Predict the structure.
Amino acid sequence: MAVPQQLQQLSLDLQKIQGDLSSTIEARQRLDAQLSENELVQKEFKSLTPENVVYKQLGPVLVKQDQEEAKQNVATRLDFIRGEIKRVENQLKDIQAKADQKKQEIANAQANLQVEPSKATP
């Protein structure tokens, strides 16, 4: 493959990787928002007394829910979200490593492109 074609392909690959990185960052931000929301709910649960009634929204309807069940659901959701955050963090590291590698390949291809014309001159 000629160096300019290789350089063009590497640039396209880098753009795809950067798109993946952007999508993954957005996913991480959504998870952060969900984590904050559920931590706030968990904090509110700590201030409840046994006499307080907890409702769960199911579509347009509020349904009475057992306090302990609601607390357990939020705790489970928090565990899941934290696990997802770890998974997305690992994805971010992998994608960033791929981006760095692709940038190095582009730099090498550009260096080869600059060296080739100097070899052609007698």
Summary: Residues 3-120 form a domain with the Helix Hairpins fold (CATH 1.10.287.370). Residues 67-120 form the longest helix (54 residues). The mean pLDDT is 91.
